[in-house]
């Protein structure tokens, strides 16, 4: 009887162990598969990240090299000749300034002239008597000079760019600018805006309208009138404009 109980207990324990093992094995197998898949995925993501960083670094170095090349070309082609021209003009002005002073004989500007040498007590008094300018002549000269200065005085232009319209604005025009450096930038304007707004924009980008001018690509037309509106130019919804250096 005792032997039978032991046998039954052994069979029960064996059956229970078999059931537990059969239940645990799929779980363990699934966990192992998940762990292996996670490790493989992490390694793959790491490799992708390293590849991305490598390509990003390569692209950055290539872009920097191109920018340095364009900057060097612009410096050699435009900046250095411009500086040489300014230096040459300064040297010419300096040489003119150091040239011989005018030492010709003066003539009276107007007024009374004394020719009687008996009235000359000294060289200074003689010079004063030989050139006595009437006060009314001085006043006329001052008035004329003030008038000319007022006419020549220019009002300083203050750059005030209009607000950029949204892309959904029906009257908006998208303008793409191409600079002499080969770079581009873009901004939207209303068709009621004038060419002066475009000139102000390129000035804020470092291309002063005094030295640069805007032109269309094809057919090439110079936008020389700042008071013309974009609607009058019939640009449409999108236009490419070039920024060119003015001829000296």
Automatic annotation (TrEMBL):
TM segment ranges: 6-25
InterPro entries, per database record: Ubiquitin-like_domsf, UBX_dom, UBX_domain-protein
Keywords, in A-Z order: Membrane, Transmembrane, Transmembrane helix
UBX domain boundaries: 168-243
Entries under Gene3D superfamilies matching the protein: Phosphatidylinositol 3-kinase Catalytic Subunit, Chain A, domain 1
Gene Ontology molecular function: ubiquitin binding
Name of protein: UBX domain-containing protein 8-like isoform X4
Species annotation: Biomphalaria glabrata
Gene of this entry: LOC106052107
């Amino acid at each position: 009887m005792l032997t039978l109980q032991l046998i039954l207990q052994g069979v029960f324990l064996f059956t229970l162990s078999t059931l537990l093992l059969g239940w645990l094995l799929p779980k363990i197998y699934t966990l192992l598969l998940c762990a292996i898949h996670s490790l493989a995925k992490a390694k793959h993501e790491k490799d992708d990240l390293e590849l991305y960083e490598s390509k990003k670094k390569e692209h950055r170095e290539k872009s920097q090299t191109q920018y340095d090349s364009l900057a060097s070309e612009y410096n050699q082609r435009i900046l250095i000749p411009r500086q040489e021209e300014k230096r040459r003009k300064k040297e010419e002005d300096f040489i003119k300034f150091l040239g011989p002073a005018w030492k010709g004989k003066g003539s009276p500007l107007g007024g009374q002239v004394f020719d009687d040498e008996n009235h000359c007590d000294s060289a200074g008094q003689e010079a004063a008597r030989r050139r006595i300018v009437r006060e009314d002549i001085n006043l006329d000269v001052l008035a004329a000079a003030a008038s000319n200065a007022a006419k020549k005085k220019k009002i300083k232009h203050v750059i005030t760019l209009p607000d950029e319209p949204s892309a959904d604005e029906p009257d908006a025009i998208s303008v793409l600018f191409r600079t002499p450096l080969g770079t581009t930038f873009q901004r939207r304007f209303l068709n009621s805006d004038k060419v002066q707004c475009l000139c102000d924009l390129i000035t804020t980008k470092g291309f002063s309208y005094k030295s640069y001018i805007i032109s269309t690509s094809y057919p090439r037309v110079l936008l020389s009138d700042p008071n013309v509106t974009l609607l009058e130019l019939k640009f449409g919804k999108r236009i490419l404009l070039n920024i060119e250096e003015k001829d000296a």
